[in-house]
Design goal:
By secondary structure, the chain is an alpha/beta fold. The chain is built from 20 helices and twelve strands. α9 packs across α10, α11 crosses α13 and α14 packs across α15. It is globular. It comes from Halorubellus litoreus.
């Protein structure tokens, strides 16, 4: 979940229908050399088609919930933030004034650059919307996964924190920390490690017998980072990252669930079903209940017969649940909410039984409630867990932004100075890099005027959409439409962008200087006590 310099940067923002001229094009164009979708948090993978992330990894389209986000950030409006996992609880908390949090981490392997600014802005925006904001330095990861010395880490850590504060992060109302100096975090990582294993890491990250233990430990530490905002109280928490960090988010969501005392689900009989089986029983119940009088009940054996006659062609789920229904015989099929004992203490399980009001049935390993809906049951289970020393984690959410294209085309990388603009660059150097950048222009001015420019493939237009236009959608739209309409030529466009970049760097570095004293007063260790 860290934003580092192994960046795969492709897919500029193009046209669409939410903000004219600013919406993402769905990934139909790709940077030179882009390959198939691979999500490697430490690699240099590219995303050739962002739509594949929806199909292959279950990332949801952000556009579908944009209207429910109060005062959406311009990165959301323009489709730079293109996807999410379960962001609706965060948006709901914003709308209703409930607690929520945002956290992201930075691996200090080089200077912070304009690609990192996307994440800085996302954390700051969530803080401005009322969220608890967390920014962390992933120094343990940098040392374990990249082999940086602690002196190198110290130098870069200060630069990341200064830029974050200079861009608007309020350190008095937020939390900044280093992994190596946070004992609470390390204790949580230890507990989470008991729920993870090497086979899982092998499947998710491709770890093998050559992977060192410290690298694996750094993954567990990142899981603790993601859940850290919930140590004081469970709350919706969003992790803003690039899509290459999605493996971390998926694992953290799994671990949050495994740490819970109880699983809450719908059920229809005393036995346990998986999701596919439960769906079949629900269908049988709905069909049979319609034909019964009020004093009659659907029986398990009748549901089994109905499934064999009416369900789709035989499947493993149909056969397995029919066998379970046969075994239950005349037991009634009745909708209920189930509390399944995942890893509750004996005292917590007994307390749950006492806390369930109305009709209930107690079994070995689960409790069925007939008068509680799913939402009420979830809150009850979480409260009992918290009362008995559990964490009560809410599964963390995530939002995903498109990668920035390097100024030279292809990937933006800290190891290729001409491809990126560091937030520490001399403003004149930033000006020169933009002036030298690759564009989406035609071969000649005449052809550009006739056919229009290719803004969807232009790193310079991307600078406007991602950074230089700031919150001004009209300005970004104007640049786009003038480009594709042939009115704007690349020379003038680059001159304007270069001037704006110089002004941005001048302003940012003035604010960084002002942040120096503030950072020195914060309760964060800037020099590691670890051996070099």
């Amino acid at each position: 979940m860290t934003d580092d310099d192994a960046d795969a940067r492709d897919q500029p923002v193009g046209s669409g229908d939410r903000v004219d001229g600013l919406r993402a094009d769905g990934g139909e164009t790709a940077a030179a050399g882009a390959d198939d979708v691979t999500l490697d948090p430490w690699g240099s993978s590219t995303v050739a088609d962002y739509r594949k992330l929806f199909e292959e990894f279950g990332i949801e389209e952000f556009d579908e919930l944009l209207e429910g986000v109060p005062n959406p950030h311009y990165l959301m409006r323009r489709g730079v933030i293109f996807g999410h996992r379960d962001y609706e609880p965060v948006a709901k908390a914003m709308r209703e004034g409930e607690p929520f949090a945002a956290l992201s981490g930075f691996m200090p392997t080089g200077d912070p650059h304009i690609g990192h600014k996307l994440v800085f802005d996302e954390i700051i925006w969530h803080q401005q919307q009322g969220g608890d904001a967390y920014g962390l330095i992933a120094d343990l990861e940098a040392h374990a996964a990249r082999g940086l010395t602690w002196d190198e880490i110290d130098e870069h850590s200060r630069d990341y924190l200064l830029s974050l504060i200079a861009l608007g992060f309020d350190p008095e109302d937020g939390t900044l920390y280093r992994q190596s100096e946070n004992r609470e975090l390390q204790d949580l990582a230890f507990e989470l490690g008991a729920e993870a294993n090497f086979s899982e890491f092998q499947a998710i990250y491709g770890f093998d017998g050559e992977t060192d233990v410290s690298h694996m430990q750094s993954v567990v530490t990142q899981m603790a980072d993601i859940l850290y905002p919930q140590l004081e109280e469970p709350k919706p928490t969003v992790i803003p990252v690039g899509p290459d960090q999605d493996p971390h988010v998926r694992l953290a969501r799994d671990l949050a669930t495994r740490m819970r005392f109880f699983k809450v689900s719908k059920a229809y009989a005393s036995f346990e079903c998986d999701d596919a089986e439960r769906e079949l029983v629900a269908a049988a119940y709905a069909a049979l209940a319609d034909d019964l009088d009020e004093d009659e009940m659907v029986r398990c054996e009748d549901a089994a017969d109905w499934l064999r006659e009416h369900a789709p062609e035989p499947t493993g789920a149909r056969e397995s649940v029919a066998a379970k229904l046969d075994e239950a015989g005349m037991e009634p099929v009745r909708p209920r909410t189930r509390f399944f004992d995942r890893q509750a203490t004996d005292d917590a399980f007994e307390a749950l039984i006492d806390a369930v009001d109305g009709e209930k049935r107690v079994y070995e390993g689960h409790v069925d409630a007939f008068d509680l809906d799913r939402g009420e049951a979830e809150e009850l289970a979480r409260q009992v867990e918290l009362d008995h020393g559990g964490y009560g984690f809410v599964a963390p959410s995530s939002i995903y932004h498109r990668f920035m294209t390097g100024l030279t085309g292809g990937k933006m990388s800290s190891s290729v100075p001409a491809s990126h603009i560091s937030l520490l660059d001399d403003p004149e150097d930033g000006y020169d890099k933009v002036k030298s950048a690759t564009t989406g222009g035609r071969q000649s001015a005449e052809e550009q005027r006739e056919k229009g420019g290719k803004a969807d493939e232009c790193p310079v237009y991307e600078l406007y959409a991602y950074l230089l236009a700031n919150d001004d959608d009209d300005f970004a739209t104007e640049v786009y439409e003038e480009c594709v309409g042939g009115e704007r030529l690349c020379g003038d466009c680059k001159e304007q962008a270069a001037t704006l970049m110089r002004e941005f760097l001048e302003d940012h570095q003035e604010k960084r200087a002002e942040a120096e004293a503030l950072l020195d007063d914060l309760d964060i260790e800037l020099e590691s006590s670890r051996k070099r």
